[in-house]
Amino acid sequence: MHIGPYRLPNTLFVAPMAGVTDRPFRKLCKRLGAGYAVSEMVTSRPDLQASLKTSRRADHRGEPGPIAVQIAGTDAQMMADAARYNIDRGAQIIDINMGCPAKKVCNKWAGSALMQDESLALGIIEAVVAACAPHGVPVTLKMRTGWSAEGRNAPVIARAAEQAGVQMLTVHGRTREQGYSGQAEHETVALIKSRVGIPVVANGDIDSPQKAVAVLRQTGADAVMIGRAAQGRPWIFREIAHFLATGEWLPAPGLGEVRDWLIDHLHDHYDLYGEHTGVRSARKHLGWYVHALGLPPAEVARFRARINTLTRCEDQLQVVTESFDAWSAAGPLPVPSGDVTNDWKLAA
Which pairs with CB-CB distance under 8 Å and at least 24 residues apart come from 211-216? Predict the structure, then answer.
């Protein structure tokens, strides 16, 4: 699969998630089998571009390419300027955010709120494509199926985006009204795929190799994008890649492997955020990791209670190492007897 001139190693993508898909997380997901990752969304407001938060979100040091930056905003000229600004700082692909359901974003008519105003949405798309064209930078678009169940207009916007020069579409199978509740529906993705000639990526509730295969078959999509299911479980990409290639389940990683990945993740995380912010912002990742291990709830609660009191990197790393050593010494964690697609546990 290609996005513009860039040939991707596979069709498994990491979703842009605010506060999650930073450089350390993207790098680890790519290391563990993801073929492509898009940055957290960065604002198009020029007065915020030099802020520490935005500069961290736009940090791609040491990250394998292609470098994809997602921009968000409501003004066509401002979005075009933001595209040029990020291209000057290394962006090789620009992604337009029309999918974020967060109230603080939608209340400003950005994100998925743009889908309510097709004229404004198209104006932004055209302006960004025009800004990127002289640099040879492809533009992609991520959106939802619509603002509400009564207004699923993603197929209309998809056609208009293709005609305007967008080179790939990603569709989360929910309306903005749904947020992340209920089940993602992929019928709209299939409809869009049947109506456009550019690559289409399916996103929403893809949390296992079997689900990835089912969504690809149902939609005819060119790729799948995974978000929440990768939180604390970045190895999901290599599991899906193995299943797609062989039709067989990849054995679950051992505790030692997960510990080493986590420690590497933490070091990279501290490097980006510094000690004060890094220790605190790492807590959510640590919580996700131990949840993915399938540990007893009481053990997860004890681990989180210890982690949440720490303020130094070395102390956090020490607790992680000690905890994994103790869990390994206790013997293998039980492999589930039921549906492993929804209940992943790891062997030592």
Answer: 211/341, 212/12, 212/240, 212/243, 212/244, 213/243, 213/244, 215/186, 215/189
In angstroms, the CA 3 to CA 168 distance is 7
pLDDT digits 0-9 by tens, 187-246: 999 999 999 999 999 999 999 999 999 999 999 999 999 999 999 999 999 999 999 999
| 105 has pLDDT over 50 | no
User: Is 100 an active-site residue?
Assistant: yes
CA–CA dist 333, 1 (Å, integer): 38
What type of residue sits at position 243? F
- Within 8 A by CB and 6+ apart from 39, the residues are 16, 21, 22, 26, 57, 58, 60, 67, 68, 69, 70
* Confidence at 341, pLDDT banded by 50, 70, 90: very low
Residue pair 15/237 in contact by the 8 Å Cβ criterion: no
Q: Are the beta carbons of 35 and 168 closer than 8 angstroms?
A: no
DSSP state of 345: -
Residue 166 parent element (H or E): none
* 284 token code pair: 């959510």
Sign of the torsion angle spanned by Cα atoms 279, 283, 288, 292: positive
Pick the closest to residue 305 from 297, 70, 10 (CA basis).
297
> What is the per-residue pLDDT for 66?
96
Task: Give the 3-state secondary structure percentages of the chain, helix then strand then coil, rounded to 5.
Answer: 50, 15, 35
| CA–CA gap between residue 303 and residue 284 (Å, rounded) | 12
Taking only the tens place, the pLDDT of each residue in 277-300 is: 999 999 999 999 999 998 888 999
Which residues in 80-167 belong to E strands, given as ranges? 93-98, 139-146
Decide if 25 contacts 4 (C-beta within 8 A).
Answer: no
The predicted pLDDT at position 238 comes to 97
Q: Which of 29, 100, 132, 313 is labelled catalytic?
A: 100
